Structures are given as C-alpha cells and as structure tokens.
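I hope you will forgive my troubling you with a question about protein structure. You will find the record immediately after this paragraph.
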Amino acid sequence: MIVPAPRDIKKNDGDQTAAMTYIAIEGAIGVGKTTLSRLLSPRFNAGQLLEVFEENPFLADFYADRDAYAFQTQIFFLLSRYRQQREVPEQLDNNSQLIADYTFEKDALFATLNLTGDELKTYFSVHNALAEKLILPDLIVYLQAETEVLLQRIALRDRPYERDMDPDYIDTLNQTYERFFKERRWDVPVLKIDTNQLNYVAWEEDLDWVENRIRQTLKLPPYQTELPLED
C-alpha cells in the first residue's frame, strides 16, 4: 500500500513560539469535529481553522458515484486543505492558540480509501511534496464513535449532499480511521475520546470534561489533575 511520507516539521523554538498551542480535532464524518472546535475556541481563547468542504464542486457527485468522481474530489480537497494549512503559522502569530477541525494527514487517509492504481500514485506524488511544507499540531484529539452513532448524527444535521451517503462507506471509513490512529507514523500526541455517550452541545459538563482532558494532556493550566487520563 502507498503511504504518505513521514513528517516531523515543528514550530520554531524560542520564547515567542513556546507558548503557542496548535490543536487539531479529528474523526470520521459525523463525529462532531467542527462542533467541538467551535465550542472549545472561546475556552482556549483560540483562533479557528475550519475545513471548507462545502466549496468542493464534486462532492455531491462523489457521494452519488464514488468511482467516477473520486480522483477529482480528492485532488480538490488536497489543494484546498493545503492552502488552508499554509495559514497556520500566521494564525498562530495572531492568536497564539489555534484549533482546527481536521489534519492535513486526513486527506491521505481518504485518498487511500477512495483511490487505487495510478490515481493513488499520482495523488501521493502531489501530497508528499506539499506535506513537507506544513507544520504539525501539538495535539490531535481523535473523536471516536460507533458507526450507528455517526449515521444518526449525519441524519440529524441533514446536509443535502450527505443524504445519499452509503452506510457501508461510513462504516468502512470509521474502521479506516481506527487503523490509521493505531498505525500513525509521525510523532504527534493523540488524545482519544469516546463520544458515543457525550453531548457537549446539550450538556456543559461533557464539554468541561473534554476541555479538561485536553488541558491535562498538554499540561495547560488550569486543569484538574485528580481526573485520571484513560488509555
């Protein structure tokens, strides 16, 4: 299997950048990445980097016919995500803290799932060249949920281009995410959070708990040290 080139680019050392914190939230479609990013942003006094997925003109066609539109969809996402990720250093300079609702490596995950053969080789020749120019987050928060929960959340938000999504595709994607985070190849801390029973929109204590887990992991005060971290 073709895999992306390993990356270990870090933010520059020094007093000015030492206090900067870049958090990326990841997980399968429907798990609640953007919602959590928006809710956490004011708590960390952080800027936001939100994925601009609705601008992809191939997305609705891809969900209707993945084989026919996979390559166009993936290349559009790759370049769009790269343009956004290039803004990270500037956003950190402006805000000191930054929360993103995706990682650049996510693009490679989807490509491995959606592309094969020469299309996949072509994709990675572009991806690897772009990835070398980007910095990595200080922490990835990986949100987990069972496939049935993902499907319920997708139905609840009722985005028009998601109405024809194949449940089997979501299940395969969910399993791919699980493998991805078990076999990750670059040195970035990952905080896994099971969201099956969480509702941080309706229940503030759920959001408090997630925030404290992040602060514990980053040793970013204030946080409650008596709350144990789970594997």
